[in-house]
Each structure stands twice: as C-alpha cells, then as structure tokens.
C-alpha cells in the first residue's frame, strides 16, 4: 500500500512512524508512506495557505489551491490503473471532526486500498470545495476538536498499517484484537500466576484449549455488555433484553 499524507507539519510524523510495528512495516517495504507539505504548493512568495472567511467570522480557512495542487501532484506520481492486480483502489481522506467516526471496520476497508491519501486540515476550517470536489471521504477520530488533522492521520495510519498482510506476526495476530469480532478483547494474563495474591484464573492454566476458548468468548461478551453495549449486534441486544446480562453471557458462551 502507498500512503500519502498532506500536512503543514510533515516533521511531526517521522518520530511516530519510526518505531514499533509501524517502523518495522516501513522498513520491510510493506507500506510506502510519504509526507508532503502542501505549503510547497502555495502561489505567493509568502507561501500563504490560509485566508479570511468570506462572510466574516473568526479564524482562518485553508485555501483550496495548495490542497488541490498537492493532491494532484501525488496523483500524477501514481496515476490510476498502475496497480498490479487491476484497477487501482484509492481514497482521498480529509481528517476533520465533521467526518464519519473512525472504526475498526473503516480501518479494514482502508487497508484493502492500493493508495490512501490523507489530507490534514488545520486552523478553523478548510474551504468547502476541498470537501466537495477533492476528498472522497471525511473521517473524524472522535467527537472532540483537535488543532489539526495530524494526530488523527497518525491514528488512522497505525490502525490501517497493522492490518496489512505480513505486518503483524502470528504472535501479534489482529484476530484477537478488541473489535475484530465486534467485541472487546477478553482479559489477558502472563506470568507470574500469583501476583500479590491476585491469581490468574485457573481455566487459563488448565491446558484445555477448548474450554479456554469458550471462557474467553464469554468474557469478551460480558465485557462488551457491561462496558460497550453499543457495539453489540442487534440480535445480541434483544437476547440481553430478555434477561439479566450474565445469564445471556453464560448461554452465549456455551454456543460460542
Ligand atoms: N481535526 C480536528 N479534530 C479532529 C478529529 N476529532 N478527527 C479528525 N480530524 C480532526
């Protein structure tokens, strides 16, 4: 996958992308990440990227020309149709609090692309023509306002890159992650088996893999019911309404 990030602060990204799983993925060429400063596409000698809003009001608005031209320069480097497997799948995502709220499902969708272009907004806003005629998608990482799209772009990049084929080893498989099966992750323990009197549940020391899988599924389900019921599928909710949560969890656990 190729990932282009358009930002006024490209230097923010290197420290984050050079570590851990992300750093390893880049080093192994599993993802090609490029950052580009859209100020380089400004038209005047002051390299102006923002201007006053028409109609008045506080704050500045990012001008359309540098953003359009920066994206067009990226697209010219990698024109549509150059993907090995046929038609290239590409999205141009604007990071903005007005976007669709980012989820694991969106991360999976983005991970299936050949080319992801992320545009980091700044200041109070972005000229509406960028939204309407340049971005193919708008993503928010949550219902709060940050000063710009850089941290959200890092969040989206990390969530997407770890899903790319070959990025996670089998020991780190994404299958056990929270959300991957629509549920929160089950509780995890490591040695020692007794820490300050708090013992690891016996079932995990039993060696009975079938029982352990059943216990984990039950735990994932009951955690989701108590902490994030909004994640549960419709049918799980109607079962939950039929009786106390732990009754359903126990019966679901047996089915699972
Ligand atoms: N830019 C500012 N706040 C944001 C948010 N919550 N998500 C995405 N982009 C943003």
The secondary structure category is: alpha/beta
Spatial gap, N to C terminus: 35 Å
Q: List segments where confidence is low: pLDDT < 50 over at least 5 consecutive residues.
A: 240-256
How do the helices and strands follow one another from N- to C-terminus? EHHEEEHEHEEHEHEEHHHH
Strand tally is: 10
Major sheet: 5 strands, parallel
Small-molecule binders here are: adenine
Q: Can you tell me the number of structural domains? A: 2
User: Which topology of the largest domain does CATH recognise?
Assistant: Alpha/beta knot
Task: Describe how the helices and strands are arranged.
Layout lengths: L1 E6 L5 H5 L2 H8 L4 E6 L12 E2 L9 E2 L1 H14 L12 E12 L2 H8 L3 E6 L4 E2 L1 H6 L3 E4 L9 H12 L32 E2 L2 E2 L2 H4 L3 H19 L6 H8 L3 H11 L1
Parallel strand pairs: 1-2, 1-6, 4-7, 5-6, 5-8
Antiparallel strand pairs: 3-4, 9-10
Helix pairs in contact: 4-6, 8-10
Provide structural commentary.
With 256 residues, the protein is of the alpha/beta class. The chain has two domains: 2-161, Alpha/beta knot, CATH 3.40.1280; 176-255, Trp Operon Repressor, Chain A, CATH 1.10.1270.20. It has helices at 13-17, 20-27, 64-77, 104-111, 128-133, 150-161, 202-205, 209-227, 234-241, 245-255; strands spanning 2-7, 32-37, 50-51, 61-62, 90-101, 115-120, 125-126, 137-140, 194-195, 198-199. A hairpin with a 2-residue loop joins strand 9 (194-195) and strand 10 (198-199). Helix 4 packs across helix 6 (150-161) and helix 8 (209-227) packs antiparallel against helix 10 (245-255). The radius of gyration is 23 Å and the shape is elongated. It starts with a strand and ends with a helix. The structure holds adenine. Adenine binds next to strand 5.
